[in-house]
Amino acid sequence: MPLLNRLLSLAALGVSAVPSVLSFRPGFSYGSEKVRGVNLGGWLVLEPWITPSIFENTGNDDIVDEWTFGEYQDYDTAKAVLQDHWNSWITKDDFAAIAAAGLNHVRLPVGYWAFAVGSGEPYIKAGQLGYVKKAITWASDYNLKLIIDLHGAPGSQNGFDNSGQRMSYPTWHSNQTNVDRTNAIIKTIISMVDSEYETVPIIAPLNEPAGFDGDDVLTVVKQYWKDSYRNIRYPYNSSTESNTVVLIHDAFQSLNYWDGFMVDGYNGVAMDTHIYQMFSAKQVAYSYSQHIKKACSHGSSLADFDLWTIVGEWTPASTDCAKWLNGRGTGARYDGSMSGTTAVGSCTGKTGNAMSFSSDYKTFMRQYWEAQVISYEKGSGWIQWTWKAENADDWSYQAGLKHGWIPQNPTHLEYPDICD
């Protein structure tokens, strides 16, 4: 048990360390209750595949992310589109439906530009924080726990369009000013929510930093996680602790890579890992049974890791067929429309409107969904990506509820032995 390990390790440092752990009261019983949640993707950080119409309506193929959305359009035009989107994409009714579906957590991605836009940066800062505050209120109204997730950092931490700025090589880690700005934003976030830890029990200080680019990134990330711990857990520059959990990300490294990291002498740290099975030629070619077997295989490593471990992104989708999932203007591995790939099969009936999905495909998605839930609950739980999408029902929790591959209550399983 992560808490027991932490108590024992801190006790070894001296009895005085133990009361600090015992006085820590997060707003959710991590490690004993399971996290069951959903992401609000594409709301306060645009993603072309989640809301393709917003990008198509610009009439400009060079607008591929939120950076270019501001760069290549008239400011007032872009601002009006964004504000209309923020007002309509997620509302209080969505929080009601999420709670009614038996979920207990919502993860809210937000970009750094909601807090501060630097000189020469074309991002549009136009009241996003008001929607963050609405989300906190709505979560409280429906007894949901809200994770505030910094999804995009200055310079981009991964070069993905969902960081706000698509680029071939991220620059966040190579410029200390970028890191300093990000630390300042984390301080702003904790100052906003420290007193509301019962509703906002977790801050995730950075989504998916590009550890796959090597030690140059990982060295900066490790120090940033430690700085974030100080900023979130001790926001008053003193020995007084907050009750807010720090959710660090594995930076695309195995859990084994992080063994022992931020364990001794720390408390209130959790690990976020994201598990997808469509972003390589090998995995996108898996058969249904191979997808399920792979999902089941994660349970043991999640159970054994020495921090609370949450699978903060995953999906019952098994292909990369959703339009622009790999970026605006980029095709899919599955049907060979991505340059340099070999087709596995047709994307027809694999994404888009669920009315086109066969009964066999929906049965597989139900089995795959349940296999992942069973596996991820061997750890501390899960948060599916994502609540809704314009035209990718295979990714949508909302659509899954409507069409039957997601149960109305996440504990009501039809295939409880699927991983046995």
Task: Please describe the topology of this protein.
Blueprint: H1 2-13, H2 17-23, E1 35-39, H3 52-56, H4 66-71, H5 75-88, H6 92-100, E2 105-111, H7 128-141, E3 145-152, H8 176-193, E4 202-204, H9 215-233, E5 245-249, E6 269-274, H10 281-284, H11 288-297, H12 299-304, E7 308-313, H13 359-376, E8 381-384, H14 397-403
Parallel strand pairs: 1-2, 1-8, 2-3, 3-4, 4-5, 5-6, 6-7, 7-8
Helix pairs in contact: 8-9, 11-13
Q: What is the helical fraction, as a range of percent? A: 25-40%
Tally of DSSP β-strands: 8
Mean pLDDT over the full residue set: 95
How much of the sequence lies in strands comes to 5-15%
Q: Supply Rg.
A: 21 Å
Q: Which structural class do the helices and strands define?
A: alpha/beta
Describe this structure in words.
- This protein is α/β, with parallel strands linked by helices.
- It is built from 14 helices and eight strands.
- The chain has helices spanning 2-13, 17-23, 52-56, 66-71, 75-88, 92-100, 128-141, 176-193, 215-233, 281-284, 288-297, 299-304, 359-376, 397-403; strands at 35-39, 105-111, 145-152, 202-204, 245-249, 269-274, 308-313, 381-384.
- It has an eight-stranded parallel β-barrel with strand order 1-2-3-4-5-6-7-8.
- Helix 7 (128-141) links the parallel strand 2 (105-111) and strand 3 (145-152).
- Helix 8 packs parallel to helix 9 (215-233) and helix 11 packs parallel to helix 13.
- The protein is globular, with a radius of gyration of 21 Å.
